[in-house]
Amino acid sequence: APVEAPVSAPVEAPVSAPVEAPVSAPVESPVSAPVETPVEAPIDTNCIWSYENTATWSTLDCSQSCGGQLQSPVDIASYIPDPSLQELEFKGYAPTRALLVDRGYTIEVQFADHYEAQFDIFKLKQIHFHMKDENTFFGVQNDLGVYLIHRSINDITAIISLRFQITPDKDDNPLFSSLVASLSDLTPTNPISFDFPGFEKLFDDLKDNNTNAYVNVHGSLTTPPCTEGVEWYLLLETFPISSSQADAIFARTKTNTRPIQRKLASVSAFVPPYRSGVATKTIAVKYDPSYMIAFWIVLGLLVAVSFALIGLFLKRSGGKGDTSYSSLDHY
Q: What predicted TM-score, i.e. pTM, was given to this entire model?
């Protein structure tokens, strides 16, 4: 019988199971922490310095010498109104989250890039503290200087300087409450995020009370490398800080004050014009009581010498009050 060839069963190609592409987990963009923008930090190992040897800062091998001609801080011996200066318009100094950093020689408040606080062309970058205030008015030094460091897009530095005086009879200043509360957890290697209250109310009050006067000084940074070309705006108004708040800040900064580098007279000042309905406050400057004591001593000596000369004159003229020039020929 014919042999039938076996019929091959059709081979079914294995059906590949559909390969599912792995679903990528959504990548969360990291939340940017405030960017550190050091302004006065030493830039290299040749700029190692301390407040114990400020006299030697000019010998440091920095990118710019601290022995320049326009160094800060300064003493304002006198100032005159300058019509060319305009009122400072502060915008965007609202409350925000900020980063508190221990810089070693000061404490610093740093802000995220999206924080839009600015005046004129200058944007706020950081704030730091000096105890006592470095700039002085009429030789009088305040207890605390708060420096608001601003930069322009073309890298010009402008500093708003606020002066604070310890007022034992007043309550804590709300401006420092959250900062002081964060100091206990702050270390050089552990910056602290905290709620910064902003300067809106302070700047608004200055404008409303007609006390937003300031002097404008061309100067420098006050720590190495002491870079010049800095625009200083020193507000004339003085603000309060409680003793406990000042002590807490001082425990971190210690004395971090560079000596006065220049004494300036007839400095340009913006003095707000009188506005109807606004009770303009006279800006008082506290003078050292020793000056007044010296004044009265000198005045007393002058009066005593004057009476002595009058008595001697009357004695020589026989007590007749002769005032002819001939009676003074032998003097």
A: 0.71
